[in-house]
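## retry 2 of 3
previous attempt timed out at serialization; input unchanged, resubmitting
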Amino acid sequence: MGMIQEFKEFAVKGNAMDLAVGVIIGGAFGKIVESIVGDLIMPLVSRVVGKIDFSNLFVVLGDNPNNLLTLAELKKAGIPVFAYGSFLTIVVNFAILAFIIFMMVKQLNRLRTPEAPAADPAPAPTPEDIVLLREIRDSLKK
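## retry succeeded, writing output
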């Protein structure tokens, strides 16, 4: 069988197609969660904490001779920065995404019909020689 034929069989199998659809939907879903965090949640958190722009929280680790003030300017100038604000935003993104996926899996598991437990198999018939030995034992007890 040629390599092209093997690839075709692999590509059209259900699992490969399901995986491709999952990756595409996951990418789109990631953008939705990113927007929820960046546009809805982080502004509320910033308001409660004191109107802080989380994406612009950083500590300058190198020399800043031009006194640059924004993270973008510092990165463009090649000055090392510890950008913990971006990290906090990504952690919040991950937590929300993980929670949503957890809830989806929980609902899917609830919707699945539980399989009926398999009936216990009938005991295997006792071999004839064992039956004869038991009969001999019982007759000797009498």
